[in-house]
Amino acid sequence: xxxxxxxxxxxxxxxxxxxxxxxxxxxxxxxxxxxxxxxxxxxxxxxxxxxxxxxxxxxxxxxxxxxxxxxxxxxxxxxxxxxxxxxxxxxxxxxxxxxxxxx
Length: 103
Description:
Largest sheet: 3 strands, antiparallel
Radius of gyration: 14 Å
Number of strands: 3
Strand order of the largest sheet: 1-3-2
Oligomer: single chain
Shape: globular
Order of helices and strands: HHEHHEEH
């Protein structure tokens, strides 16, 4: 089984921020799930429906929908669709990498 390397930022900063400060643990779970799936692609994106994410994470569709909206608001993911009924494309954003490059 291939290994996944996590940025330390995820556990040191994002976890306490989303779970503790925002009180949105589902958002952290969804971000980790999408992060894992998207890490296999060079453009850090993955196509996934609300139902497929809900099934994979054990969360309800409404919890997934709310978590995705929160992650978009926080600029941690960018979601797009080719047309209204298409399966969404979720691109993982990692803003902390931009911060590190400026130093």
